[in-house]
Amino acid sequence: MRKIDIMLLCFLLLSFLGYAQKIVPITKIEVLSKVSKNNTSIKISEEEFNQAKADYKQTNAVFLPNITASHTAIATTNPLMAFGSKLNQEILTQSDFNPALLNNPSQIESYATKFEILQPLINLDGIYQRKAAKSKMEAMALKTERTSDYLILEVEKSYMQLQLAYKAVNVLEKALTAANANKKLANNSFKQGYLQRADVLNVEVRVTEVQNQLQTAKSNVQNASNYLSFLMNDETYIVYLPTHELTVSTFSVDSKSISENRSDIKAMQLASNAYEAINKADKMDFLPKLNAFGSYELYDDQIFQANANGYLFGAQLSWDIFQGSKRFGKAQKSKSEFEQSKLEYKQYVSQSNLELNKAKRAFLDAKNKLKLTALALEQSQESLRIRTNRFKEGLEKTSDLLISETKFAQKQLEYYQTIFQHNYAQAYLKFLTKQ
């Protein structure tokens, strides 16, 4: 028996340590600030923009020259290479034209330093590829902006969920206090013979129900706090306390319709522009390309010496006339992708308008429901007050009192839940109609 008592004590101690977490007050402004600085989704979006920016920088090759430098060392007895190496080194003599030496030369060493430059002049497909890369970069910048907008909405929602969770705890703590008071009153009435044992058991069941609901509400506080920690990229996962209670709020909505300048919609348009530019680039690939080239060469039979030198420059007009059906298929694919992007843009705008209409109806429903739940709360509170007074005088059944208690707690929770729905509906409208 003593062993069981010790085990029970240890269990209670561990439970207390598990729930005795530090509670930290936090404002919504503090959450927004930390999310904007530390949120992982924003950082991922910023890295995607950096990647697109790097891709755009690569397209500078359409205008800028390609310069290479090399140093080559060879040793050869190949007749052609040996004669050419001497010629490059400017050491060729009359005796080198001896057929015996030409056909069977001695080993020749040659060290060559070469600088080459390739300058694009006309490269139309590259110009359109550059335009596509720029559109993609701008689209990624807008995606980062929309990600920030979404996280602002998510902070609004999660902060209100935390407020709602604390409201639920407050309601259920009061309900538990009332239930315990009724339990004490019921026990006294039972001892005096005014109530039956079944009535006392009903009151005790009610107390247990409220205790379970209160425990769930406290878990919801921890869940909401943990989600805020996740948004702020804070791995301490402490319990937060909102500095303001959940109340009916009014947000300013920018407009009543979807704007084509909204960052995500504009990003979709830029993505479509990128596909259009890629399609044009594939078409321009059928045209010839003009490039200038040049080189400066240094030769010697000693390493890193330059007793002989020469240069070469010119221009090349090249035209890949036929590559099987590769380019035709590539152009057809990019055209199909461009057409698909236009359809996706149209569908996205249509879907956004659909979401806006749903959000407007949800806001009106929440606004009407808020009035009804406020009235129902007032009625249930008055009903509970009357039944409680009658129960104390022995004029009310225990079951009726319990029903009134339960209904009052439900109406309180329903009222605060409706406030949450009302406020979130406004925040979502603001998110959808942002310019």
Main sheet strand line-up: 2-3-5-6
Low-confidence stretches: 1-20
In total, the number of strands is: 6
User: Can you tell me the number of structural domains?
Assistant: 1
| Biggest sheet record | 4 strands, antiparallel
Name given to the CATH homologous superfamily: Outer membrane efflux proteins (OEP)
How much strand? 5-15%
Sheet/helix structural class: alpha+beta
- Compressed to H and E, one letter per element, the order equals HEHHEHHEHHEHEEHH
Distance separating the two termini: 71 Å
Radius of gyration: 40 Å
CATH architecture descriptor name? Up-down Bundle
Number of alpha- plus pi-helical segments = 10
Features:
four-stranded antiparallel beta sheet, alpha+beta, Outer membrane efflux proteins (OEP), elongated, two-stranded parallel ribbon, 435 residues, 13% strand
